[in-house]
Amino acid sequence: MPVLILLLVLVWLTGGWWLLGYGAVLGWLYWLRLRGWLLGMAAVLLWLAVAGAVQRWPDNAFSRFVQWSPHALIWLLAMALIGVSAWLALRLLHRHSVALPHDGPGLVPAKQAAAEPSPEPADGSAPESGADPGPLSDAELDRYARHIVLRELGGPGQAALRRARVLVVGAGGLGAPVCLYLAAAGVGRITVADDDRVSLSNLQRQVIFRASDDGALKAEAARAAMLALNPHVAVTAMNRRITAEDAALVADHDLVIDGTDSFAARQAVNAACVRAGVPLVAGAIAQWEGQVTVWDPGHGAPCMACIFPQAPAPGLAPACAEAGVVGPLPGVIGSMLALEAIKLIAGAGEPLRGQMLIFDGLYGENRVMKIARRADCPVCSGLAGSGHFRQG
Prior knowledge:
The protein is α/β, with parallel strands linked by helices.
C-alpha cells in the first residue's frame, strides 16, 4: 500500500503516467506470489530496464511517453533504496535496543530449563515450573512497548513478567480486573481458581464477564476472556476453591493474589501461602471502601493471621451480597492488586509489605497504615526461609 501511494503521488506531481503500467506489472508479480526481497529485486530490475531503454533510445515513442531523463530515473531509484535501507536499519537497531536479558533484576529468577514453554496442563492442574519461554516475539515487543520503555520495568522486568507463574484465587469482583490486567501485562502463566458460576447480578462489577456468560463457570469464562485479550499467555482454569491443604499447588507459583470474599476463604489461602513460602497480594472491599496489602512473612511482613487472628463477629463484616458494593470499587482495588503483583514480579518500586492501603471511594481518601508481624502468630511464627523471591 505505501508503494502504491508513492506511485500515485509521483504520477500526480510529474505526469509520469507510465508509472501506472509499472505498478500494474508489480501488482501482477505480487499476484503471482512474489513476495519480500524477490519482489523488491524485481521492482529494481524493472526500473533499471526502463532507465536503460530511455538511455539507449532517447527519441523513440517509449522514451517520449516516460518523459524522464535517465539521470532522473537513477536518482529516484537511489533515493528509494536509501530510504528502504534506513528503514531496515532502524528496525534492526530497535530490535537490538530492546533485547530482553533473562537474568535482569526482578523477583522471578530466570529459568534455565527448557527453551520453549511447557504445554498447558489439560487436567486443570498447576502449570509446570522451570520453563524458560525464550525471547519475546515481534508481536509481543509491540504489545508490551509501553512497559519496555518504563525505566523501572524495561526489558528485564517484562521478561520477568513473562516467566512468572501467578495464582489468582477468585474470579469475582476483585479477580476480574486482576485477571484482565495480568493477562494484558504479559504474565506468562496464570492459574484462575473459582468454583462459582456467573450470574446476572455479577455483571454490575465483574467486568471480565458478559451477559452471554450467565450460568458459565467463572474460571472457564475468565480464561476465555483472558486469552481473547492476550493469546501470548497461558491460562489454567481450576473450577474449585483453594484450601489450606493446597500448599503444594501454591508452591508451584511465584505469587498468589487473593480476591475471595469471605474470611474463611482468606484464612485458608493465607495458610497455604505461609506453608509454601509464597507472597500473597490480598484485597478486600465493602460498600465504598477497600484495602490492599502484601502478606509476606518470608520477607519480614506479617501474614493475615498476624493482623486478623480471629473472624469478625457476626454482622460486623457482612458480605457484599448483604452490604452492597459500588460497581467501580472492585475495579479500583483489583487494579491495585494487579499493580502490586507487577511491582513484586519485576522488582519495581516499593511493594505494600508491612503496609495496608485503605481506599475510601465515597470521600476520595487514601490512608496507609503500618502493620507488623506478631511473634505469637499461630500461622507464621517461627517461619524460616525467605520464600521464592529476592528482595525487590
